[in-house]
Amino acid sequence: TDPLGRAQLLEFLKKEFSAENLSFWEACEELRYGEQSRIHEIVDSIYQQFLAPGATRWVNIDSKTMERTLEGIKTPHRYVMDDAQMHIYMLMKKDSYPRFLKSELYRNLLAEAVIPPETKKRVFPFMRKQRHSSPSP
Predict the structure, then answer these.
(1) Which of 77, 73, 69 is nearest to 36 (CA)?
(2) What are the CA-CA distances from residue 24 to residues 16, 37, 56, 113, 134 (Å)?
(3) Could you tell me the sign of the dihedral formed by the alpha carbons of 2, 41, 28, 92, in that order?
(4) Rounded CA gap, 58 and 13, in Å?
């Protein structure tokens, strides 16, 4: 959900030659939460960009998932890409994202992060403020 974190992940995925996975996931989110009147247009766009033979940003999904998705897009609806989206999500979760967390790009992002004051450790931990006095003994 963090825009900066997502941008850094996309940058990492570009270097790994798998940026299309995140782009596909985002397009599926647009389908799911976008305007009802654009569903046919968005489904067609997703198919042309990511799933069609020779697509410029082709994503690698298994044959069963592809079969179900292709059958579903004959009557497009908001959730027609759910299986394919979940497949790509799991690929990123198990492979790309853990590599991103170990990358120099992510370490630099963390180093530049602004840490909210309430999460910083105090110099003298024994001098903590009382949160609320409890009315019960």
Answers:
(1) 77
(2) 16, 20, 12, 27, 51
(3) negative
(4) 14
Domain boundaries, the chain: 3-112
- Count Cβ neighbours within 10 Å for each residue of 77-101 and write b for 16 or more, e otherwise: eeebbbbbbebbbebbeeebbeebe
Q: How far apart are CA 60 and CA 18, in angstroms?
A: 10
Query: How far apart, in whole angstroms, are the C-alpha atoms of residue 27 and residue 80?
Result: 12
Separation CA 83–CA 65 (nearest Å): 6
Structure tokens at 18: 């798998």
* C-alpha–C-alpha distance, residues 51 and 57, integer Å: 8
Confirm or reject CATH 2.60.40.420 for domain 3-112, answering yes or no.
no
- The answer to whether the CB of 19 falls within 8 A of the CB of 6 is no
Question: Residue 56: CB partners within 8 Å, gap ≥ 6?
Answer: 49
pLDDT per residue as tens digits for the range 37-85: 999 999 999 999 999 999 999 999 999 999 999 999 999 999 999 999 9
